[in-house]
Amino acid sequence: MDKKRNNNNLLTEIVKLNINQKQKAFLLVHMKLYIDTVNALVHDILLGKLHYNNLSTVMFKAPLPSAIKCQCIRDAKSIINKYKDTLHKYNEKVKDNNGIYYIIGKKKGKLIKKPRLPKLKLLVYYVNNQNYHINDNFINFPVLINNKSTRINLNAIIAERQYQLFKNKLGLLRITIKNGKLVACVQYELQEVKTFDNGNIMGIDIGLKCPAVSYDTNGKIRFFGNGRFNRYMRRKFFDKRKKLQRNKKYRAIKRIKNKESRIMKDINHKISRQIVNEAIARNVKIIKLENIKNIRKNITKRTTRTSRKNVKNKNYRKYQDICRKNNRFVNSWSFGQLQKFIKYKAIKAGIQVIYVNPVNTSKECPVCHAVNQSNDRKYRCNCGFHHHRDVVGAMNICVSTKIVGNRQSA
C-alpha cells in the first residue's frame, strides 16, 4: 500500500509476540478498526464525500490514534491509485475492442469484466516507522484507550540476529495473524554495497530448463536446480486442479494452489542460497542478472495459439497443444522471485547486484560476437566456438556492460 513497500531493498523480519489472551483480544479489536477505517475512507473518497488531496485526520472520525489515522490515509490513497490504474486500462480495452475480446475457439467472444474496488479483509495494524520503537524485548507503539492515545509495550521474542538487522533504517511495522498467532512484521532497509573494484564478477543466466547457470571471470561454471523436477511439479498440480475443477471442489483447488506456490518458493530459496554461497566461496564482488521483467509478453507472442493462420492444417491441433503447454510453463515461471531472493541474499553478504540488458545474451558468440540461433541447448558458431546455450548466456551476462535499471523493460 505505502510507496516505501515497493522498495526492492526493503526486507521483512517476523517477530513473535509473547502476549496473553487479554492483550490479543485488545489488538484484534484495533486491527478490525484499522481495516474498517481504510475501507470507509476509500468508499468516501470515491463518492466525493472526502477530498483526495486535502484529506487530514480532522475530516473523519475513527477510534484510533492520530498517527495511525495518518497511516490509514496513506493506505486508502494507495488503494485508490491502484484502482484508478486498473480502471484506466479497462477503459482502454473497452474503447479498442468495444467490450469484447476476440479469441479462437468454441466461444467466439469474451466480455471484459470491470475491475472491482479492492477491499481489505485480513486483519492488520500498520504503524509508521516514526511511531514505534524496539527496545530490549519490547515493541512500543500507539493505541487508543478510553479515547486517549496511549503507547503500549508488547513483549516480543527478538533474536540477536534480528537485533543486528534492526540497526538498519526501519520501515513499517505490521501486526498481523500468522498460523493463528499474532506476530509483528518489521521492515528494514538494506544498504546496497557500492563496489566498483576489479574483483571477481559472476553472471547468472536464469531459464526454464536450467533454473540457473553461473559463470565467473575465472571461467568457473556451475548449474543450479533441476528444471525437469520443476516442470514435473507444475504438471502434477495442474492435473490435480483440472480434476478438481471438473468435480467443482473449489476449496481443494485453493489449498493445492497454495501448496504449489510454497514448494516453488522453497526451491527458489534453496537455489538462491546455493548461488550466493558459491559467490562467497569464489570471492565474487559483483553478481550480474538479466533484466527480464517483460519476458512473458515477448515469449507468449511467438507461441500463442492464434499465431498459426492455417487452421485446416492436420498438425494444427498438435501445434495448438504444444503452444498452450509452453505458455502455461512460461506464465508460471517464477523468475522474478528467484532474482529477488538472489539480490537480498547477496546484499546481506556484501555483494553488489547489477542488472544488464538481456538482448541476445543466449545468441551472441562470446568469441566473435556473431549472433546465431542455437539448436535446443547446443550452441555452435561458425568461428568454431560451441557450448551449452545457457552457459553462453551466463558468459555474455558476466562480461556485459549494458547496465539497465530495475524498472526498464527487457
Describe the structure.
The chain has two domains: 186 residues, no CATH class; 200 residues, no CATH class. Helix content is 41%, strand content 22%. The protein has nine helices and 16 strands. Helix 6 packs antiparallel against helix 7. The longest helix has 32 residues. The chain is globular. The N terminus and C terminus are likely disordered.
Which structural category fits the helices and strands? alpha+beta
Count of domain modules: 2
Estimate the helix proportion, in percent: 40-55%
- SSE order: EHHEEEEEEHEEEEEHHEHHHEEEH
DSSP strand count: 16
Major sheet size, sense and barrel closure: 7 strands, antiparallel
Name the overall outline. Answer: globular
In angstroms, what is the radius of gyration? 25 Å
Mean pLDDT: 82
**Low-confidence blocks of residues:** 1-6, 102-108, 304-312, 406-410
Sheet-strand content, in percent, reads 15-25%
User: Whole-Å distance between the termini?
Assistant: 26 Å
User: Total number of helical segments?
Assistant: 9
Strand order of the largest sheet: 4-8-9-1-7-6-5
